[in-house]
Amino acid sequence: MTITEKIMARSSGKDKVIPGELVWTDIHSVMTMDFLGKQCFEKFRSLGKTEVFDKDKVICVSDHLVPPPNQKFANMLNEWREVVKQHDITNFYDLGRQGIAHQIMVEQGHVLPGTISIGTDSHANTYGAVGAMGNAIGVTDAAVAMATGKAWFRIPKSVKFNVTGKWQPWVMAKDLSLHIMGMMHWNGHLLYKALEFTGPAISSLSMAGRMTLCNMTVDLGAKNGIVAPDVVTERYLRNRTQDKWEFLNSDDDAEYDQVYDIDISDLAPTIAMPGKLDDTVTIDKLIGTKFNKAFVGTCTNGRLEDIAVMAEIMKDKQVHRDVNMILVPASQTVYLEALQAGHLETLIKAGVAIDTPSCASCAGLHTGVAGSGDIVLSAGNRNMAGRMGSREAKVYLTSPSVVAASSIRGEVTDPRTFDI
Amino acid sequence: MVKGTCWVADDYVMAYDIIVSEHWTSPIDPIENSKIVMSGVKEEFNRENGFKDKGYTFIVANHNFAGGGKSIEHVITGLMGAGIKGVFATSFARLQFRNAINYGLPFITCDDIHLACETGDELEFDEASGIIKNITKGTEMQSVPVAPFVAEVSESGGLMNYVRDKIAKGEPIG
Ligand code: SF4
Hints:
The complex is a heterodimer. Helix content of chain A is 31%, strand content 18%. By secondary structure, chain A is α/β, with parallel strands linked by helices. Chain A has 2 domains: 3-263, Aconitase, domain 3, CATH 3.30.499; 271-409, 2-Layer Sandwich (Aconitase, domain 3). A 5-stranded parallel sheet of chain A has the order 4-3-2-5-6, sandwiched between helices. A 5-stranded parallel sheet of chain A has the order 16-15-14-17-18, with helices on one face. A 4-stranded parallel sheet of chain A has the order 10-9-8-11. In chain A, β2, α2 (34-46) and β3 (58-61) form a beta-alpha-beta unit. Chain B has helices spanning 15-18, 30-36, 74-81, 94-103, 148-156, 159-169; strands at 2-8, 58-61, 86-89, 107-109, 122-126, 131-134, 139-142. In chain B, strands 4-3-2-1-5-6-7 form a 7-stranded mixed sheet. Chain B has one domain (2-144): Aconitase, domain 4 (Alpha-Beta Barrel), CATH 3.20.19. Helix content of chain B is 28%, strand content 18%. The longest helix of chain B is centred in the C-terminal third of the chain and has 11 residues, at 159-169. Chain B starts with a strand and ends in a 5-residue tail after the last helix. Chain B contains 6 helices and 7 strands, in the order βααβαβαββββαα. The interface between A and B is large, with 52 and 42 residues. The structure holds iron/sulfur cluster (SF4). Iron/sulfur cluster (SF4) binds next to α10 of chain A.
């Protein structure tokens, strides 16, 4: 069996599962957040329950709406707080301890290798970075899981990406994500599939890189993305969870729907063109393209490693006068670590505005949204018309290193040729 | 057996455009959601009840219907509130496929069905056999059968009812 099949077999109390089979599985943790959470609890109660299956395993996070930018969201947040309090939830990451839910789930040890965690937000696929099965679901599934500790799943076919070669300087996991996006497209090849990333170039990735990679598998239409746990995982989880886990991996004779070999030695910084995530080009096609807004943050690229790369590139330089640049750390923990490491000082001196952890403009709901005519260079994950605000804005998606180097020049710049 | 006219979607009908972002934080409510469903897909749907007033019963699409990875259930309740009784496509985006199953709205996989239908054609769908007839054109297609669990949830009127019933009876789930 593949690692995903093994996790699903264990979680459903079976020795073996086969793709296509429908099972009910145990859920390790359920996440919900500010703008959908109240509806989850209401639906949960309508099932005839008053207590959730495990108060420690229902994780509540405020991320899309904090701090509230308007009265509507202020009221929603107050109702949300009330409902979380009513249910005596142990792990509530509200303003002050907040972060983007997916970052919180992994960084605070709420996901565990070899188990299944679900969340009412699409990028729950991120949890695959630690060898868990992370899955996005709607509020109905969340309500059912809150009541029963279970969810239904169809066992997906697995697809393997065997990634070899050596990463070029300033080329990041995001570039691999966008490269795969351009190579596979949205149109069906990877729909419902479990994507497994393996090979030396994955082993050498930090947890931050693995999170980026698994995070964007939802945008490929996949069911989940996963990296089998190894020593990087072990080191990462050591101080984050007391729960026991094993080094689960795919069997040598596991069956895959497809296997793709990717050599990343020549992988160039890659950019998704405005409007369509799978319309990607290598950076040479866009060198010199002007933009007026730069954004680094989100559950894809708002981590310490991303901020460190920016700081390294931007040290003692200035953001171009025609560019507004915003950095939003993915969580309070990331924020503090970036502060302690001195990165924030470097970036503030360079003219970068730092916003408090939240989803910010990523979904066009919160701070820093794009207006008509804006051209945004973003390290986020989605760029459909209207995603970051105005439908008349254009959003290019790329890595933090490209955003950093380009923001100094005021035009798309290859960090590999930038004088750092 | 369900009968009615269809709307044939263009490629890339995204969940985002079916329910635009300003409504993601609204309550999940079929009547309210149906007023604005599809408003980002086409200019002609971009007014109150713009899609609903067309009176379509089915949607026909190519690949990745309701894609873009949005888990919000307003997409499904909006379509149901607008009178949609079935969506036929070569493939669906996973999250909305799942939500549709949970709400008992048939999302039926049928390869290349978009090539066999035009907007306004009258279709007839037989849930039991999975046969989709295009009455206007006099053709018929066999769709992929739904899993027994999916049919069971649909018969219960959705996952909430299905689970509520099990909990009330003290029966185990799965
Ligand atoms: S950062 Fe963006 S993609 Fe991630 S959870 Fe928030 S809104 Fe969704």
